[in-house]
Amino acid sequence: MPYYQNINSFKQCSTHDAFNLPHGPKAEVRIAGIYRCDCGFEFAVNASDAKPASLPAERNCRNHANEWKGRDGVPVWLLVAAAIHQVS
Ligand SMILES: [Zn+2]
């Protein structure tokens, strides 16, 4: 999960379906926010990015970033954080 400061101020949970929809490599998404791969790697889609925006194209978690010690496997992305106005 992303790191938070003052976590008690951010206890709003959404039931929006967008948080339950898995995405594969290079998937196009329209909601800005933080997407988390099932290996733990995170990727941000900015509100200012053109929509649809593409999630990372790598097809193996080991290739997310040089410093990432991911496991072998195909990335599966989930939206884990979004601005309230993005998913209302
Ligand atoms: Zn991954």
What features would you highlight for this structure?
88 residues, mainly beta, 3-stranded antiparallel sheet, 5 strands, binds zinc ion
Query: What compounds sit in this structure?
Result: zinc ion
Kindly report the oligomeric state of this protein. single chain
Radius of gyration: 13 Å
The fraction of residues in strands falls at 15-25%
What overall geometry do the principal axes of the alpha carbons give? globular
Domain count, please report it: 1
- Enumerate how many helices there are, as a single number: 0
Mean pLDDT: 91
Unreliable stretches (pLDDT < 50, length at least 5) are none
Q: Give the class from helix and strand content and strand pairing.
A: mainly beta
Major sheet details: 3 strands, antiparallel
What is the N-to-C order of secondary-structure elements (H for helix, E for strand)?
EEEEE
What is the percent of helical residues?
under 10%
Q: What is the end-to-end distance?
A: 21 Å
The strand count comes to 5
Strand order of the largest sheet: 3-2-5
